Amino acid sequence: MTDDNLTFFEKRLQSELEDIERRIKELNIEKEALARQLSKARAEREGLQFSTRKNSMNRVLAENSVMKSLREKKDAVSTAALYRNARLTHYDLKENTFRTYLNRMKDKGLIKPSRRFRAHWVLPDNTKGK
């Protein structure tokens, strides 16, 4: 194989790699657009379409997910399980942000830490039937 053929081959491979990178970028843009549309649809379903701040909408969706999970389980639910469920409402929710949401909910009296299990949450006695 001559140097000319190798140079042509290298240029061809480089061109194909650049094309793949371009397509990946386009797909990521499309993915983000679809995720935004999904968030809007969920917000509309939850009655949050008039929320003025995106962060408020995401927080309320995550809080609703936590409350729903705790009501359905009727027992202590781990932070990890609650986080997994909340990520279904907001795909790029960060774990630290979610923990902040949990602390806010605890401060409001919406949830409380489990006495039996570490890093588990339960509903306070006065909200179990709601």
Name its key features.
mainly alpha, 130 residues, 3-stranded antiparallel sheet, 4 helices, Arc Repressor Mutant, subunit A
Notes on the protein architecture:
- The protein has four helices and three strands, in the order ααβααββ.
- By secondary structure, it is mainly alpha-helical.
- It folds into two domains: 1-45; 53-130, Arc Repressor Mutant, subunit A.
- The protein has a three-stranded antiparallel beta sheet.
- The longest helix has 43 residues, at 3-45.
Q: Mean pLDDT score, rounded?
A: 83
CATH class of the largest domain: Mainly Alpha
Number of helices: 4
Q: Helix/strand-derived class?
A: mainly alpha
CATH superfamily of the largest domain: Winged helix-like DNA-binding domain superfamily/Winged helix DNA-binding domain
CATH architecture of the largest domain: Orthogonal Bundle
The description of the largest β-sheet is:
3 strands, antiparallel
Strand order of the largest sheet: 1-3-2
Number of strands: 3
Helix content: 55-70%
**What's the SSE pattern?**
HHEHHEE
Distance between the termini: 76 Å
The percentage of residues in β strands lies in 5-15%
How many structural domains are formed by the residues?
2
Question: Radius of gyration, rounded?
Answer: 23 Å
Low-confidence runs (pLDDT<50, min 5 residues)? Answer: none
Shape, per Cα inertia axes: elongated
- The CATH topology label of the largest domain is Arc Repressor Mutant, subunit A
